[in-house]
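Section 5.1 Outputs to date
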Amino acid sequence: MATAPAKIDWQSLPAAKSGQFRIGGDLIVNRLGFGTMRLTGKGIWGPPKDHNESIRVLRRAVELGINFIDTADSYGPHVAEELIAEALYPYPAGLVIATKAGFERPGPDKWVTNGKPEHLRAACEGSLKRLRLDRIELFQLHRIDSKVPADDQLGALQLLQSEGKINHIGLSEVSVKEIEHARSIVPIVSVQNRYSVVDRAAEDVVDYCDRTQIGFIPWFPLASGDVSKSRSSLEQAAAKLKITPSQLALAWLLHRSPVMLPIPGTSRVEHLEENVAAASAKVGDATLKGLAKLARGA
């Protein structure tokens, strides 16, 4: 007999201190989520070095109140989705698992875009099976494939949506112009671009999402540890507050916009707990405004 899904009061747990956001109007998530790319092996390929720790990380994330988990069929490939199901199924009510499609993985650290409608459909159906879901709440186009008409790629997602296999559609690594074009075809509820306190290339996209109430999911939110190594005002400000630079970087992201949904990833429970503690960090307006002027390499 299957274990009954747990009932969780998400807003009573530590991650809830990051605030809440409604993705697509109906998916209420705590704004500090979790990204699963780092749960896989070296080169985002194969199984993790420590399988049991990866399972513990996912379960601890839920215990801490993270109810937005971001993954992709290309992470492993397939490994991250399989770990999520192993660790968390049957899923507690209110847990949103977002996945992505649009890449093929010929080997470690190798990524090849594939936006052909038949590939996107197969990817979606594979994700449904691996995640043990009847419907994917947020299905994101990992990249717009320049070799395939964008309308065909978006049309494929629209068809999957009409069939009830996905609920909402998101995009990744797109410009404002590309978002606007996509929205002329299908509703777009989220955008996932690279962005952090030390990497502001997507500033105009963040502003656009803020204006239109589209969730902005910054990937690489800690710039792969760059913020921890920084000798800039970030490090100095963190030291004064007695928190880590990574925690301050996450606190700044949460302050940057109410549509911001950071998804810092890790393969260690200790690091996960450190990240979630950022939701409770008390950072003054003067410090946050000062960090707003920080540029990459400062």
